[in-house]
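Pasting two entries for a bug report.
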Amino acid sequence: MVGAGVISAQYIDTLPRYPAVRLAAIADLDPTRASAVAATAAATNPGVRALSVDELFAADDIDLVLNLTIPSAHVEIALRALEAGKHVYGEKPLALDVAGGRRVLEAADAAGLLVGSAPDTVLGTGIQSSRALLDSGVIGDPVGASVHWGSAGHELWHPAPQFYYQGGAGPLFDMGPYYLTSLVTLFGAVVRVSGSATRSDRRRTIARGPDAGAGFPVDVDTHVTAIVEHVNGAVSTVTMSFEQWASRVPEFEVYGTLGTIAVPDPNVFSNIPEVWTTEDPEWRAVEPIAGYPDAGRGVGVADLATALATGTAPRASGVLGLHVLEVMEAILVAGNEHRSVTIESTVERPEAVAAVPAASAVEQVAR
């Protein structure tokens, strides 16, 4: 693990659940923090040790690097890991821009190594059960989706939120991957986008921690709306915002010719979808019918390790991460230039996780 910041705790808690991986070492630019996090992690990850970044890349017992650095360092760390002969799984986004993401995947291909990319929340029971419902035909043919995420800003809870307002972040690059990766998982690749983006002149002030009360600059658009066209013909509307104090807009809904699926929050793993159909016109909760049960951040790392062992394709792959990155980049271009943008890359829908037969999904809804 390279990067021992706030998000590392979630991975440290999850990785011991999966026998396909063992957390061997933790590195950070701050050696003191790396040592402190490794000491805490040792309770559930026996044998984990703190190393410098250089020592971690040189270690013979490390096969895969989990890249939890800030977005601006994602490409540098990924390329160094690949150069050292190690597979890489990184936090989202894969890179600050498509050019950087392509460099990572090209280096991996040249070295015969695999790249994985967050979010892996799409592998949990929430999104996978929604996919199983959609694929079962319960709501008929898919027509489109409406996605809406918003908050007033991460400075209200994060003690060092500045990087959320720099290139490679903002509401679209920070939260968009959860929703766009879910949309690709449901509908397939994106072929075209259009959109609009803006930002307010509201002063951003840190609310908690040692720097509470300090202001900081905003270098990204803080309210983004897009129209996303998928290869299967479905059309999704997507809004990501750091300008939203309150809302009554549904977070994530999928529309079909025979009904609607209320998809649970894709930033978590195990919430329950609901479905409404013309045959049974009331909302019904659907218990998990697919996906990794009780998953947490790190299940994508385990899935990648399993792919290495079995010769299969990882589900939370770098190819998928690059496609979503291109979609986000194109949304901003479309907004700034007031036009639609064709997406050059494509990706297959990742293999479903433990999907039950379609009939089971239909039967549960009919109960």
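Entry 2 (this is the one that rendered wrong in the viewer):
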Amino acid sequence: MSINYAELEKIVEELKDFVIGSICKKVTQYSKNSLTIELRKNNKDLSIIIFIDPKNTFLGIGNFWQAAPKNPYHLTMVARKYLNGLIIKDFFNEKNDRILYFVFDNFKIIAELLGKNGNFFLVDNEDRILSVLHNRVGEKRIEKEGQKYTPLGSKTQKEFSIRNFFQINPEISFCKKITDYYLKQICIDKLDKEIFNIRSEIVKKNQFLEKLKDDLENSDPLIYKETADMILQNINNIEQIKDNLKIRYIQNKSASENAQYFYDLYKKQLRKKEQLSQFIQTIKSNIDNLTKKIEILNESKKKVESGELNPYKVLSKDDENKEKKNTIKITKENGSLYDFVTLDNGKKLVWGKSSAGNNEILKKFGKGNFWWFHVRDYQGPFVIILDENISSEDIKVASTFALHFSKGKNAGKASVIYTRCKYVKTIPKILGKVIYSKEKEVIAVDDPNLIKKMLETRNDN
């Protein structure tokens, strides 16, 4: 819902005395739909908020609730180049329309507060567009930088009046009432969007959970043990029973080798079944947390609607979260979530320094046939050798790294699993958790001297 022309006229009437004769301190575009014009007059400041959005278009006053982007929009740079320090000579709106003008000596700001068709222009004294919020090319006019600004030809024939709920509490300024109303709508829309996204995430997690449950239900490790037991019990007359085994007998192996092979498969499948059970519990817990988050968001929405919670707090908090995400992104780019060393044969080895680092190296370096290592039964780093071919010495170094930086370091030695990266799959939205297959196993022994020697190669990367 956008402001109508009667409400815009009321705003202009209320702000006109201050705006005319004020100095434009700066214009800042905060997002693709929003900006502020900061003014100063008689040692007093005023920030005018302009929000042009298909759902909420309005003009209000107050400090903006978003942090200015670190890399300013083009409109911001152009407006500051031409307008900073200039005095506003006139301020008015078109009769019976939602088009607003800030007039300077040689420039104009034109704000068309028309919902999805709205736009914001900076033009010179010949009406050439210097910058624009939304670049558009239509049948009737071109809204692009360098083009001549063409006024909208037709005006609305519908009559509007100020909505009743804006006329309550006459002691509160009209601009403040407009600002508070639309700020509340924007806040509620954001909460609704977040709730919708979380619900969609829960649906995906439930689908993944059902798949894991099916895999767990279809997993039957006992069949491998029963096969191995049957072979050992009939080891002297294996030819008579091998065709009746539940699992195909491997012809190029002896009976004892077959039995050992199926016992190993039994142990491996038991571990996988246990792993699947743990993943299922983790995802269930994750879904519960998301459900609780929806409850919190719904509670916040009710408080915003009732006026118990200030929308500024919700929107500012949302912006703080964005800043944290930006910090994480910068950390990743600087590489401090993972590290490299160079093996004696020139191959690169990378390991994660945290759960986030583990996910990051899988995303960046976990290519098809590269090799992935992780210590079994302990929390620890993912280690990847960035090569498709590895030697026994490569395996020794990578498994030592996996053990040395894990919680199993104090044990002195531990089992390390390794497989090709293409057989390692991350679990969506669960940091540091993976499902792997076709793994091999090696016993790693902690060797601080080897680690120290390898860490000295970091300067070569």
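Dev reply: Rendering is fixed now. As a check, the viewer should reflect this: The longest strand covers residues 23-31.
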